[in-house]
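Continuing the series of single-chain predictions for the mutant panel. This is the parent chain; the variants come on the following pages.
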Amino acid sequence: MDLFEKLKQRVGPLGQYADDAYGYYMFPKLEGEIGPYMTFRGKEMLNWSLNNYLGLANHPEVRKVDAEAAAQYGLGYPMGARMMSGNSVYHEQLDRELAAFENKEDAVLLNYGYQGMISAIDAIVDRHDVIVYDAESHACIVDGVRLHMGKRFVFEHNDMESLEKQLQRATRLTEESGGAVLVITEGVFGMTGAQGRLADIVALKSKYSFRLFVDDAHGFGTMGKTGAGTSEEQNCQDGVDMYFGTFAKSMALIGGFIAADKDVVKFLRYNLRSQIYAKSVPMPMVIGALKRLDLIRKNPGFKADLWKIVTALQKGLREQGFDLGRTNSCVTPVIMHGTVAESASVVHDLRENYNIFCSVVVYPVIPKGMILLRLIPTAVHNLEQVAETISAFTEIREKLKNGSYTAQKVISMAD
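Parent structure:
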């Protein structure tokens, strides 16, 4: 059979909706200045779907530095991979400042967070080692684990009893093979908003020998006293051996980093295939990241403004009886029940009649029969917008319960 003919048949669980969903439910085009209000299909929408936690995307100082750096260096400089010809004093400065912010000895800059996480997992373990990872880990962790040639065990989400059982299995194997154990989890799980139980995992080091690698994409900048992340929030920074943070959330940028002991970072610099064989982070993004990091350190008000909105939104939704699951972070999942077709009707109603834009998550990302509307609060939202959203969601829920959204197929809104 022809390979491409197979692809036409194997469209995938989301691809089956492509003809009806493209441009509306999936791959929507938001236009205008990044902020609480943006334009979607010619209409202004109250937007809860941007990973711009601290509101830095359009901060005037950030925009100024971004523009000046782009004008001075262009988007091509430096050319080449960082190891060969793409290094600069600014790249090295950003490494140092990120390490200091995370109270680690050193850090290595990543051109993309997703690829960097995959590559780091691939680099630090060999076939004798065992990986133990959380069942609800992000796709970048799962993809990295798939590259591992040795054993890998999954523990039930945030379940310490399950983790111990897997650690016992891993310990027995590594005692025979001479390998080591790596535990991987997240600081904040991006779909549910639940914090990983980092402090409890660190405590298990008194019983088992392992290293802990934490993906804190949604925690960096939003959690902890200084914004250094979920390990700071849980007072266990020293127990996290490798800390991954991304620029794509709080910094509203592209890229990421891994902070760890200097010997570990030295190893990563010379063994991360995603960095060795790919172009270095462009200078405007490096200089822009330095500015954003400086603002985060010097302006705790950004995080305070964010949490003012988070608290109001989550408290208000819970008071109205909404199920927000296990979230104890900024991520705000509103869980309802219905079919995929009904979820499309809910989103259509929110956008067309309430002018509210948020992301919808359905099967296979979550179990069948569930609808998850994910809200991402930011420091530049206000309390009036929170109240408007809670009111709209209350009306939407009643419509869902009384069958107003009953449909046999997804409403076609494709361009």
